[in-house]
Amino acid sequence: MPLRVVIAEDVLIVREGVLRMLGYQEDIEVVAAVDDLPQLLAAVDAHAPDVVLTDIRMPPTGTDEGIQAALTLRDSHPQLGVVVLSQHIDAGWALELFARGSERRAYLLKERVSEPGQLVAAIRDVAAGGSVVDPKVVEALLAVRTRQRSALDQLTPREREVLAEIAQGKSNAAVAKSLFLSTRAVEKHINSLFSKLGLTEEADVHRRVKAVLLFLSDRAVDGG
Fold first, then answer.
1. How far is 40 from 53, CA to CA, in rounded Å?
2. Which is it for strands 28-34 and 81-86: parallel, antiparallel or unpaired?
3. CA 64 to chain CA mean position, Å
4. In this structure, are residues 59 and 10 in contact, taking their beta carbons and an 8 Å threshold?
5. Residue 30: CB partners within 8 Å, gap ≥ 6?
6. What span, in angstroms and rounded, lies between the C-alpha atoms of 61 and 135?
7. Secondary structure class of 36 (helix, strand, coil)
8. What is the pLDDT of residues 120-159, one digit of tens each?
9. pLDDT tens digits, residue range 17-61?
10. Architecture of domain 140-222
């Protein structure tokens, strides 16, 4: 069966271009094309797609609706893949998108619309449970990582294992179960790695997001 895709893009010419491009793919079927966040969420409920391809900025506010959709759908449709397209390189948006795990998520620049092979590959990858980050976005992530690499190198092997689990969006309890540790031990490791990464003065959710950013960029450098 073909992969079922919902497109969310408020610029008509871009939406029609993506529709036409995907129409040439025998293994992809576009089941809906919408232009704002409420319509996107309704289309997902109505059509049960495999993948959503969404602009990062759409009505009603034109700010970060694509990221909001990805986060909302992580809870309501955990098996759904989401490919977010952005006009600009923004490590912060990528960081937020992957904050609860990188599986089934992709962050690409809109210029990839003119490169059908890469866009289609990203759709297929997230449908299969993978993740994709635009090379230019990776460069932005690596710039952050370079500034903090020495701190990352201070982590113990166990702390890096815990960080890898956090990057998958797991709770402390889930990390403990995966690594055969007590929840209290996991909390100690997390507090330690936050301290080594200089993230002790921020809210817990922000510390987790920034720690995941470092982990993802580290993997990109090492080819992981």
1. 10
2. unpaired
3. 13
4. yes
5. 5, 6, 7, 19, 22, 23
6. 28
7. coil
8. 999 999 999 998 888 888 777 766 656 556 677 888 999 9
9. 999 999 999 999 999 999 999 999 999 999 999 999 999 999 999
10. 3-Layer(aba) Sandwich (3.40)
- Asked if residues 116 and 99 have their Cβ atoms less than 8 Å apart, the reply is no
* CATH of region 3-133: 3.40.50.2300
116: tokens are 């059908």
Closest residue by Cα to residue 32 from 71, 4, 73, 70: 4
Q: Residue 29 is inside which H or E element, if any?
A: strand 28-34
- The position carrying tokens 């992809």 is 28
Please identify which residue in the block is written with the tokens 């079922």.
4
> CA geometry: angle at 53 spanning 47 and 58, to 5°?
100
For 121, the 3-state DSSP assignment is helix
The token pair at 43 is 């289309």
**How is the chain split into domains, by residue range?**
3-133, 140-222
220 Cβ contact list (under 8 Å, min separation 6): 133, 138, 141, 142
With contact defined as beta carbons under 8 Å apart, do 103 and 168 qualify? yes
